Structure formats: structure tokens, C-alpha cells
Amino acid sequence: MTFTNNQAGYGGGMGAYILDGQALLFKGNQADNRGGGITGNKLSVKQSTFLDNTTKYGGGSALYAGATASLTNVLMAHNTESGTGYGTISLGSNSTGTFNHVTIAQPALVTAGTAISLGTGTNFHIYNTIIANYARCFDVSGTLNVDHILYSNNTQKQLVETGGTFNDSGSNLTLDAQFVSLSTGDYHLKFTSPAIAGGLYTAGVGGALDYRPRRAGHSAMGAYNFWRLEFVPVVKK
Q1: Cα–Cα 20 to 30 A to 171, which of 17, 117, 193, 200?
Q2: Which tens digits make up the pLDDT trace of 195-224?
Q3: DSSP secondary-structure letter at 219?
Q4: Which residues lie across from 109 on neighbouring strands?
Q5: Using an 8 Å Cβ cutoff, are 223 and 187 in contact?
Q6: Cα separation of 128 and 71, whole Å?
Q7: Confidence at residue 84, expressed as pLDDT on a 0 to 100 scale
Q8: What's the confidence (pLDDT) of residue 235?
Q9: pLDDT at residue number 230
């Protein structure tokens, strides 16, 4: 399902109290206040893309206070916000949730802007995620737990505000993600990408954004998985 070129005060593409969605595209939407792509209270989004959405707070998505959210195998690219200190994903106070296999990226390094902003009292776990070309990856006023994150060409990893807690597993990488083509918006991984071997497989994660399967020992960081094609010659006698 596609939501394109819509405009609203909150949730440019969609304002949803409860959403359990898969294979969604939010593109070119605009919100005057929060959530260029989507805003909501209980969100579970899989194998979906947020592209070129704009707003003041939370270019890709924004959560209300006390909300819950799950993003799995999701791409958020080229989303912008004008509010100082607010992220492409803006998480309201006391919200909770998990992000797994998410790619959050800009086509080139931005001089201002945060990938994910967490309000006071939040508690989030973020795994197997690629963050690329941001001035700051995380602005943390709540509790953030990160594991197997690939930081690619960012200026600052995190700013921990007063009362915030940042728990780093130590299994993260700071390297070039090696996307196929930033200029054309192709966020698949080159075969040399460190994200391919850097992922942590978690049961029940499902297929990648392009539906390539994930399994133990073969689950790349980010929204896309990588499968090397191998050709076995057939010899006829």
C-alpha cells in the first residue's frame, strides 16, 4: 500500500492510533507539526519504506507520549525535519519499543539533524541498524540500548541529555556501509560491505525489505540482506 504526496498537521502520510502494517510506502508526504511519514500510538511496521517525507519534528515518523513501536526490515531515507534537536524518528516521552534491521540514511552528510531522538522516560532497543550521513545519530533523554549498529559517515554518534542513559553492547562498527548507490537511492549492500558479516540474527525477524530470507549466519545489518550468487557448472557425460 502506498501513501504519497499527502499533507496534514500530524502524520503527513498517515495518522494512526494503531497500525500493524507490512509492505508500505510513505513517500513525499508533509506534516506541519510531527511525523512527515506517519505518526501514531501503537505502531508495528515491517518491510516498508519511508522516503522524502518532511515535517518539523520526525521527518520519517513520530510517536506520541507513552506510545509503543516496532520497526523491522524498514528503510528510512531522505526524510527531513526543521525542528532543532528532533530526529528523522522522533520518539515521544515514555514511549517504548524495538527497531531491528533498519536503515536510516541521507544521500550525503548533513550539517544538522539527528537520526533518532528519544524523549524523557523512553526505553528502546535498537539492533542490526545502519545509520548513515547524519550530524548526530542519537539524541537520548530516556534509555537507549544498541547492539550491532553500523555507523557510516556520521559526525557524532550520540548526545546523552541530562537523565538519559545510553547502553552500548560494544558490538558496533564505525565504517563505510558501502551502499550500491547513494546518488540514486539504492541502499542495497555491495558485496564488500561490512554490514553483511556484522549482523546478529534474531529468530522471527522475517525476510528483508526485498523479501530475501534471513537465517542464522546470514543476516546483514540494515533493511536489506545480501545473498551472493554462486554458479555451479553442470558437466554432462
Answers
A1: 117
A2: 998 888 888 888 899 888 888 777 899 999
A3: -
A4: none
A5: yes
A6: 11
A7: 59
A8: 61
A9: 46
What does the alpha-carbon distance between residue 156 and residue 236 come to, in Å, rounded to a whole number?
58
For cell 558485496, the residue is 191
Q: How far is CA 8 from CA 55, 80, 134, 154, 214, in A?
A: 10, 16, 26, 31, 37
Based on its alpha-carbon atoms, the radius of gyration of the chain, rounded to whole angstroms, reads 17
Give the dihedral sign, CA 193/194/195/196.
Answer: positive
The dihedral through the CA atoms of 153, 87, 25, 78 has a sign that is negative
CA-CA distance, 177 to 189, in Å (whole number)?
A: 7
Grid coordinates given for 29: 508526504
| Euclidean distance between CA atoms 35 and 78, whole angstroms | 14
Rounded CA separation 110/144 (Å) = 23
Distance CA 60, CA 231 (A): 40
Amino acid present at 79: N
User: 128 in the Ramachandran plot: left (φ > 0), alpha (ψ -120 to 50) or beta?
Assistant: left
Question: What band does 237 get if pLDDT is binned at 50, 70 and 90?
Answer: low
